[in-house]
Amino acid sequence: MKTIILYFIKFLGGFWLSRKLIRNKTLILAYHSFEVFDESEFRPNLFIKYSTLTQRLKYLKTHCNVVSLSEIEQSNKPINSVVITVDDGWASTLSHASSVFSKFNFPYTIYLTTENVLDNQPVFHILLDYILQASVGKTLTIILKGKECIKTVVSINNIENLKKEIALVKTKRLDTELLTVIARSLDVDIGGIIDKKSFSLMSVDEVKNIAQLGADIQLHTHSHHTYLFDENAFEKDLQANQQHIEDITGIKPLHHCYPSGSYNADSIQWLKRLGIKTATTCNPGFCDEQSNKLALPRFLDGENIPQIVFEAEVSGVLEVFRKLKSLIISGKLRTVNS
Ligand SMILES: [Zn+2]
What we know:
The chain is α/β, with parallel strands linked by helices.
């Protein structure tokens, strides 16, 4: 229903008009990983197909001006400016996306989380989720050190509980061994999946490579965790991330992205004290001169977003709807309070 309304608004020239109205605002787009085989069916909000990404960039080329993240603070930006950001540093950013961004000559920023880059291990919880979802109906038996820890049939309804049970037997040291035990029990070709690197971040050499190709590498914490209530842990984790990135690229990163968009008033103050210039969230919206530079909104794009919704967001139509909605809600609140 929503998409039909959006096609109708587009047909009536609403997208064109909206782009005129928001021409001095900037939209920050966020991507995560890029499909290597069939992963967008598994998590369409995390992965995007090559063909969809190409369609998005074609639209940006003809309707917007893609600028780098560092240009966000400049007042003389081109109209309808868009910043492209990519979270985490998945291996497919180099193997599948970098050539597409280069083809369009678009600058982009990678918010890199460094622990899995240095470990050079797949991201355990995402790979585990993929294996379990692909194994519904099979019996999972986990035997570690001769002791049977788990034996159950995998079903859609028990995957979340299973992940919690598996987390109890998991230790950092056991990650790869445990994944191998699980995959063998479910008859999944874990070696083949790991080799495709779809659930892995880039290696140190690959980060160096993509930085040399022109990618801007910025902060996303070392452990992919925001310590909302512990300033020391927050600072230590962010500074480890900053140091590792500087060691790899030779450039000190000063722009941050809150992992999973988690932040609070304290994190903003802590970033300010650490001299961080900008920080992005997962809240939708556009940026302008009045935006808090340490809590910038972004639009999360993925295979789950239909092209018409992407165009509506980029054109500012959805921003108009959001503003109207918040006006109606605040109006109702005023009525209730008065
Ligand atoms: Zn992330």
